[in-house]
Design goal:
Blueprint (H helix, E strand, L loop, with lengths): L1 H20 L12 E4 L5 E4 L19 H12 L2 H4 L1 H8 L1 H31 L9 H10 L3 H4 L2 H37 L6 H16 L10 H22 L15 H15 L2 H9 L13 H24 L16 H36 L1 H5 L1 H22 L3 H29 L8 H33 L1
Antiparallel strand pairs: 1-2
Amino acid sequence: MDAEQEQKQQQSVSEQKAIEAGEMGRTLEITPVTVTPTANGDHQMEKHATDVEGSNPVKRRHATSNLEAATHLFKGSVGAGLFAMGDCFKNGGLAGATILLPIIAVMCVHCERMLIRGSVLAVERTPGATFFDYPETVEKCFEYGPRPLRRMSRIMKLIVEMFLCVTQFGFCAIYFVFITENLYQVLQQNGVDISMSMVMLITLLPAMIPSLMTNLKYISPVSAFANVALLFGLIATLSIAFSDGPMPPVGDRHLFTSGSQLSLFFGTALFSYEGIALILPLRNSMRKPENFSSRFGVLNSTMFFTTALFIFTGFVSYVRWGEDVAGSITLNLVVEDVLSQVVKVVAALGVFLGYPIQFFVMMKILWPPLKRSNSCAQKYPISMQVVLRFVMVMMTFGVALVVPQLNLFISLIGALCSTCLAFVIPVLIDFVVRAQVPKGLGHWSYAKNLLILAVALLGIVTGTYQSIVEIIRQFK
C-alpha cells in the first residue's frame, strides 16, 4: 500500500508540473486553467493531464482541439517580432530574406521535433511522470544519458532556465521601447512636447500595477484583447502601406546584403520565431497529442502560415519604405494622418496589455528558487514576491531606457538567447538521447546536427557581436 500511495503522489506532482509548465511560453493562453491563491501566497492550478502519447488519457476538463492548439501556437509565436519584419528584410534583402526565412523555419520545426522526442523518452523512463517542460526535459535527458554527462543534468536545467528568463526579460524591455516610440510620435504630433524618456516614465506606472499582481486570473483576460489589438495594428498598417500611392519598384531595393547585415537579420528572425518554450506544454494540453507533430499537424501547418505571414509583411514593408523602414513598421506611418495615429496607439496598447503576461512567465522562473533559498521569502511570500516584481519591472524599464534602438535590441536577444533555445539545446538533447538507443547516432544524423550547431554558433557570435557594435555606435 505504501508503494501504491507513493506512486500516486509522484503522479500528482508530475501533473502539477505539467500544469505549471503551460505558462512557460510567450503567451499564457495555452490551456484554460483555474488559479486560486493559497494561504502561503502560491497559486494552485486545477487541470487534468494526459500522458505524452495520449494512449492512456487521464480525464481533463480543458483539453484543446487541433484548431485551438494551432491558434495558441500562432499567438505565442507572433508578437513584436512581426512588426520588425520590415527591418528583418532590410538586413536580409528581398531575395535573401525570402529564401532564408523558410530555411530557418524548417530548422526550428526540426529542432522542436527533437525536443518532443527527448521529452517522450524522458517521460517513459520516469515512473509516474506524465509531462516534462523544457528545462525538466533537458535535465532528465542528461540524467538518463551517458554516465559522464549525468552530473551535468542540474547545470543544463539551470542554463535553460537562465536563457528562458533572459529571453522573457528581453521581451518585457522591448515592449517598453515599442510602446514608447509609438506614443512619442503621437504626442509630438498633438503638441505634447516631452522627451522620449519622459514618455517611457509615464508608461511605467500603468505597466507596474498589473505586474505586481501575483494571481494569474486577474491579468490573463487582457491577453485576448491584446491579440486583437496587435492584429488590427498589423492589418491597418499593411492596408495603409498599399493605399499610400504606387509601390516603389522592387529593383530599387537590395536583393541580397552583406555579412554584417545578415547577422542582424538572423537575430531578428530567430527572435520572431521564438516559440519553442510553448511546444511541450501546448502538445500536452491537446486531446490527441499525436496530432501536434504529424505531417499535416498543428506544428507544421502553423509554422507554414506564420512563415508566409512573416514573408508577406516583411516584403511589403521593405518595398514600401526601403532603407527607412523602422524597427516597428508602425513607426513608418505618417503621423499627421489621424488613422495612422489610431493604429500607433492601438498597437502600443496591444503590446502594453501583453507586458504583464510576459512578465508573469519570467516570475514563474525566478520566484520558486528564490523562495526555496530565502527564509524571509518563506515567511512573507506575498510581500517578498511583490518586492521582487517591483525590482524586476524597474530593471526592464532601466534596460529599455538605455537601449537606443528597438531593432537592435530585438536582434541582440534573438541572436544570443533565442538561438540557444531554438537550435543549440535541442541538438544537445538529440546527441544525448541517441546515445541511449541501440542504433545510436548515424552518419547522416551526426552530420546534420553538426551543421545545425555550426549555423547556430555562427549566428550567436556574429549576431551578438554586430548587435552590440551597432548599439555602441548609436550611443556615440
